[in-house]
């Protein structure tokens, strides 16, 4: 009779903070409260947040997710996603008499307000962000065509040739890499010394905190798993930040089922975190899966407290 293979010990560092942010929590609550108030179905334009588990959970309760407003029938409520929408979307909903709820994260709305303020003051607005991301589409859609320019890299900044260098401002997508964005902002300020910036940094507190926590993981871990969706900007950024901070073995997985166990070869300490759209249940599923293969000791790596909450729309808060 052979000797059983010993279960190897594994130190698991759990990032704190991780997972849901206040904007995501608010958006999900809006859909849930709308279902309670109006009954099924409640339509949602685009994924309410970028997470398959969350979307499927809401679908099971009666939410119907669509790509565009013309897929929403008359007479039913519709929710706009946390990423924000162009001004044309609520205008179209009002024209049709649709009962709509805007779940745009208040921190994204703050960027919209800043962009509008600069536009009203006659400044051309430069948006730092990722082309095609729903938040960028929503922000670009706050201003008339031609009054905002998107830049993604320092190279894009170098290629800029605005008509009036004395009337410029910049805003940013809320889910970018803090360090990468700082480099782009510096390039803008070096090239255009008179450029106006936001009164308060646009990258949201949750993105900043989760990147700080993943840097702390990278200082100690041989391997880092980030729970999140491939179309979740803040989750993808966490992987990039971890790799740049010294942990090349950083991977994005949507759930425990996507873990490639060959990643663990030679691993003695792993780090675990989740993007702002990923629920805690997915983290716990990963811990359980790892615990079935290793003798796991879980340690909480705490870097920052979070106590931010956002109010629900008045029509749902009663």
Description:
The protein has 318 residues and is α/β, with parallel strands linked by helices. 37% of the residues lie in helices and 19% in strands. The protein has helices at 22-38, 52-60, 88-96, 106-120, 134-140, 154-158, 178-191, 205-218, 233-244, 280-291, 314-317; strands at 9-16, 42-45, 63-66, 78-80, 100-102, 124-128, 148-151, 168-172, 223-227, 250-253, 269-274, 295-302. β4 (78-80), α3 (88-96) and β5 (100-102) form a beta-alpha-beta unit. It is flat, with a radius of gyration of 22 Å. The N and C termini lie far apart (68 Å).
Helix/strand layout:
Layout: E1 9-16, H1 22-38, E2 42-45, H2 52-60, E3 63-66, E4 78-80, H3 88-96, E5 100-102, H4 106-120, E6 124-128, H5 134-140, E7 148-151, H6 154-158, E8 168-172, H7 178-191, H8 205-218, E9 223-227, H9 233-244, E10 250-253, E11 269-274, H10 280-291, E12 295-302, H11 314-317
Parallel strand pairs: 1-11, 1-12, 2-3, 2-4, 4-5, 6-7, 6-8, 9-10, 9-11
Helix pairs in contact: 8-9
- Coarse structural class: alpha/beta
Shape: flat
And the CATH topology of the largest domain? Cobalt-precorrin-4 Transmethylase, domain 1
Please state how the strands of the largest beta sheet are arranged side by side.
Answer: 10-9-11-1-12
Question: What low-confidence regions span 5 or more consecutive residues with pLDDT below 50?
Answer: none
CATH architecture level-2 label of the largest domain:
3-Layer(aba) Sandwich
Identify the CATH class of the largest domain.
Alpha Beta
Gyration radius from CA atoms, angstroms: 22 Å
N- and C-termini, Cα separation: 68 Å
**Main beta sheet, described?**
5 strands, parallel
- The count of helical stretches stands at 11
What helical percentage do the residues reach? 25-40%
Domains, number: 3
- Helix-strand string: EHEHEEHEHEHEHEHHEHEEHEH
What do we call the CATH homologous superfamily of the largest domain?
Answer: 4-hydroxy-3-methylbut-2-enyl diphosphate reductase, catalytic domain
- Strand content bin: 15-25%
């Amino acid at each position: 009779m052979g000797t059983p293979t010993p279960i190897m010990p594994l130190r698991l560092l759990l990032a704190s903070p991780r997972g849901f942010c206040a904007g995501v929590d608010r958006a999900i609550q809006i859909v849930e409260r709308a279902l309670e108030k109006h009954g099924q179905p409640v339509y949602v334009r685009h994924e309410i947040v970028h997470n398959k588990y969350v979307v499927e959970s809401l679908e099971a309760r009666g939410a119907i997710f669509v790509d565009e407003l013309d897929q929403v029938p008359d007479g039913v409520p519709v929710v706009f996603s946390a990423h924000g929408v162009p001004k044309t979307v609520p205008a179209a909903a009002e024209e049709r008499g649709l009962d709509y709820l805007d779940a745009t994260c208040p921190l994204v709305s703050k960027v919209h307000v800043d962009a509008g303020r600069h536009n009203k003051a006659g400044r051309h607005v430069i948006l730092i962000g990722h082309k095609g991301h729903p938040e960028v589409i929503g922000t670009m859609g706050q201003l008339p065509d031609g009054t905002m320019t998107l830049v993604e890299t320092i190279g894009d900044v170098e290629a800029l040739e605005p008509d009036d260098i004395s009337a410029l401002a910049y805003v940013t997508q809320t889910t970018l890499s803090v360090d990468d964005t700082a480099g782009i902002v510096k390039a803008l300020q070096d090239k255009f010394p008179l450029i106006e910036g936001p009164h308060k940094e646009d990258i949201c507190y949750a993105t900043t905190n989760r990147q700080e926590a993943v840097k702390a993981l990278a200082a100690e871990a041989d391997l880092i798993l980030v729970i999140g969706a491939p179309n979740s900007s803040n989750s993808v950024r966490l992987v990039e930040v971890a790799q740049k901070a010294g942990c090349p073995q950083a991977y994005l997985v949507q759930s425990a089922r996507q873990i490639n166990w060959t990643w663990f070869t030679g691993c003695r300490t792993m780090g675990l975190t989740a993007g702002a759209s990923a629920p805690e249940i997915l983290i716990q599923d990963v811990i359980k899966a790892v615990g079935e293969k290793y003798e796991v000791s879980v340690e909480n790596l705490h870097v920052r407290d979070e106590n931010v909450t956002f109010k629900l729309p008045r029509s749902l808060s009663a």
